[in-house]
């Protein structure tokens, strides 16, 4: 009996798709951009001056794959900056960029227009003929890069809603944080400080320990002569000596 996938399984699949999308998108764009700088076609131009070998790069044949690859790479980054319907729209843009790159690269793989332009420039004749026309495999490298971008776009459409967004960890704790208490954060409340002052204690030097009161009591005992100490003549301090 088949069971529906749990939320944990869907989240795990979304994380795997996220890693594949980041790697595949970067690799696909890199393949297209590198391919655009390589030789896509070569031929021999025949003119009054003889035969001249010519060759054209991917950028000479068409600039569409490179442009779409850059747009797709930007769309891949933008997927993590937006949410909801905007994320689906950006993922769709990425998908279309991949499909357009594949189509443009396939068309450029058999194109001879760039070779004709290069032959006209080399011979000075617009009607110069081409011989030994050949095409390299670099256009198909661009096709592979476009296919990766297309796959990444499809992954974004399928799992993009479960991918994290930039700044989400800050939004989770958007409330203002209370500053951490400093060294004196555990001090008494203001009303406690006033009570300490009323008792004659120093609130800045710690809680009163009653030493002042004790010292006052001791000094009063020493100076005033109060208490039960005997008088100098051996009788009690509060009794007069009796006569003979």
Oligomeric description of these chains: single chain
Name the average pLDDT. Answer: 76
Unreliable stretches covering 5 or more consecutive residues: 168-176, 181-187, 206-241
Task: Give the C-alpha Rg.
Answer: 45 Å
Structural class: mainly alpha
What's the N-to-C terminus distance?
125 Å
Give short descriptive properties of this protein.
244 residues, mainly alpha, 3-stranded antiparallel beta sheet, 3 strands
Secondary-structure blueprint of this entry?
Blueprint: H1 7-36, E1 39-47, E2 50-57, H2 58-61, H3 64-79, H4 84-109, H5 113-123, E3 129-135, H6 138-159, H7 168-171, H8 190-198, H9 211-224
Antiparallel strand pairs: 1-2, 1-3
Overview of the molecule:
The protein is mostly helical and 244 residues long. 56% of the residues lie in helices and 10% in strands. It has nine helices and three strands; from the N terminus they run αββααααβαααα. It has helices spanning 7-36, 58-61, 64-79, 84-109, 113-123, 138-159, 168-171, 190-198, 211-224, and strands spanning 39-47, 50-57, 129-135. It has a three-stranded antiparallel β-sheet. The longest helix has 30 residues, at 7-36. 26% of the residues are buried. The model is unreliable at 168-176, 181-187 and 206-241 (pLDDT under 50).
Produce a short descriptive summary.
With 244 residues, this protein is mainly α.
